[in-house]
Structures are given as C-alpha cells and as structure tokens.
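[audit] Reproducing an earlier prediction to check determinism. Same input, same settings, fresh worker. If the tokens differ from the archived copy the diff job will pick it up downstream; this log only records the rerun itself.
[audit] input (102 residues):
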Amino acid sequence: MSETTEPVSVRNVPEKHRYEIWIGEGLAGFAQYRLPDDQHVDFVHTEIDPAYGRRGLAAQLVADALADVRAQGKRIIPHCPYVAKYLQKHPGYEDLVDWPQR
C-alpha cells in the first residue's frame, strides 16, 4: 500500500447519488447508491480509479459512507459486491444492514 501526503476526504454528493473519495483535488473513486425509500440507502457500485489503487481507499470510502448512513438513522442494502464483502469482513454493522432478497 502506498502512502499519500495529500488529505483524503469522503463526501456525500446527493445530486449524483454517490459518496466520493478525494485525494487532495483529485477524485479517486465513488460508491454509487439508490434511495428506494426514506429508510434505506442501497449501495449498487463501488469504483476506485486505477491510478489510486492499492491504497485501501475503497475500504475507507465504504467505512465513511456507512458511518454517514448510520448517523442519518438509515439502513443499507448492499447490492454492491464490494460493500457486501466489506460487511462480511468487518463486524459491527449488523444493526445497519438489510441483505437483498434473492
């Protein structure tokens, strides 16, 4: 994992229905979501620009997005394979998740 000295920030961009992760002034990636109702945030896709890969940014993006959803008092639906995998590897989000129906 390479280190960066530039600040890393995660922002919710509601008009684009996504959380974005920025390194300095560069957009490094995003987690796209849908709002199926007023109780849920349905994560559908996570993507990190290959130029920013191998830095753990996807995990930071998802962790910050989940913290924001929790702070809003909402729940998540993890349709995105990366978000689902993150939840399985990181306990402590059980109260936040409604797994998609098959």
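[audit] rerun output stored. Observation attached for the diff report: The CA atoms of residues 48 and 58 lie 6 Å apart.
[audit] end
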